[in-house]
Amino acid sequence: MITAHYLRERLATTQLPADPLDVVMPAGSERWPAGMCERLTATLRPAGVLIPLIDHGDTEISVLLTQRSAALNTHAGQVSFPGGRMEPGDADIASTALRETEEEVGIAQAGISVIGYMEPMPTITGYAVTPVVGLIDGGYELNIDTTEVEYVFEVPLAFLLDPGNHKLVERDLHGSTVSMVEYHFDGERIWGATAFIIEKFIKIIIKQ
Fold first, then answer.
1. How far apart are CA 129 and CA 82, in angstroms?
2. Which of 158, 142, 156 is nearest to 186 (CA)?
3. Which pLDDT tens digit goes with each residue over 31-50?
4. Does the reported pTM lie above 0.70?
5. CA 148 – CA 57 distance, rounded (Å)
6. How many CB atoms lie within 10 A of CB 153?
7. Contact indicator for 39, 124 with CB cutoff of 8 Å
8. Residue 142, Cβ neighbours under 10 Å: how many?
9. Do the domain assignments include residue 189?
10. Alpha carbons 174 and 37: distance in angstroms, whole number
11. What's the rounded Cα separation, in Å, for the pair 203 and 205?
């Protein structure tokens, strides 16, 4: 079983990106449709998301995810990590992720222990997204902003680590077929940028 101690050790060498706009294109992106690549390399806005790892002690680690409101302008109705765009008052992109998490789901920033970072990645909606990894005690309290989030749910990390739960699907983007990973858990479909971040995070913690 992967523990909080293991995760801290595995992510100890990761660093907060000096430039949240210095995105790293995914492996194999050179084969993606030209229109899609143009959108991914256009002018991007910095954003931060939190990968909230819930520490339930001796039982398990789980990942907290949100179901976004259907009324939002971007990623409406999708499963996502809490987060959003960087604001002028944010000290850095980690501050963005923590602030947005507190605003969206009510988990106090003081109750989140940041243990690692991932490289900024571009999204087709025009953002450079930096995932920030945070440990949260299992006794956390929520205060959901229903204008942004409909509800939250947890997925056991063990479920996401199981290769049998990685579903490879094909999507039509800009006239070309692109293979992507999805996860289906308890009626929830985790796809798009969220699934991609999870896939990259898993590779980091299992040393691939």
1. 12
2. 156
3. 555 555 555 566 789 999 99
4. yes
5. 30
6. 15
7. yes
8. 12
9. no
10. 10
11. 6
